[in-house]
Amino acid sequence: MENFGIGSWLQRRRPKSGTKTAVVAGKREFSYEQLA
Predict the structure, then answer these.
(1) Are 32 and 10 within 8 A, CB to CB?
(2) Strand partners of residue 24
Protein backbone atom coordinates (compact mmCIF):
# COMPACT_ATOMS: atom_id res chain seq x y z
CA MET A 1 0.00 0.00 0.00
CA GLU A 2 1.40 3.39 -1.00
CA ASN A 3 1.42 6.37 1.33
CA PHE A 4 -0.21 9.29 -0.47
CA GLY A 5 0.02 11.64 2.53
CA ILE A 6 -2.70 13.44 4.42
CA GLY A 7 -4.09 15.06 1.27
CA SER A 8 -5.56 11.84 -0.10
CA TRP A 9 -6.86 10.88 3.34
CA LEU A 10 -8.83 14.12 3.57
CA GLN A 11 -10.30 13.55 0.12
CA ARG A 12 -11.44 10.06 1.12
CA ARG A 13 -12.75 11.20 4.51
CA ARG A 14 -14.77 14.18 3.24
CA PRO A 15 -17.74 12.14 1.88
CA LYS A 16 -18.04 10.26 5.19
CA SER A 17 -17.66 13.17 7.61
CA GLY A 18 -18.30 16.34 5.58
CA THR A 19 -19.32 19.02 8.05
CA LYS A 20 -18.04 17.29 11.20
CA THR A 21 -15.15 19.01 12.98
CA ALA A 22 -11.76 17.73 11.86
CA VAL A 23 -9.38 20.24 13.47
CA VAL A 24 -9.67 22.67 16.37
CA ALA A 25 -7.07 25.46 16.46
CA GLY A 26 -7.63 27.83 19.35
CA LYS A 27 -11.19 29.11 18.98
CA ARG A 28 -11.42 28.13 15.32
CA GLU A 29 -12.85 24.86 14.05
CA PHE A 30 -12.42 23.39 10.57
CA SER A 31 -14.57 20.69 9.01
CA TYR A 32 -13.31 17.91 6.78
CA GLU A 33 -15.04 19.68 3.90
CA GLN A 34 -13.12 22.91 4.55
CA LEU A 35 -9.77 21.14 4.70
CA ALA A 36 -10.22 18.98 1.61
Answers:
(1) yes
(2) 29
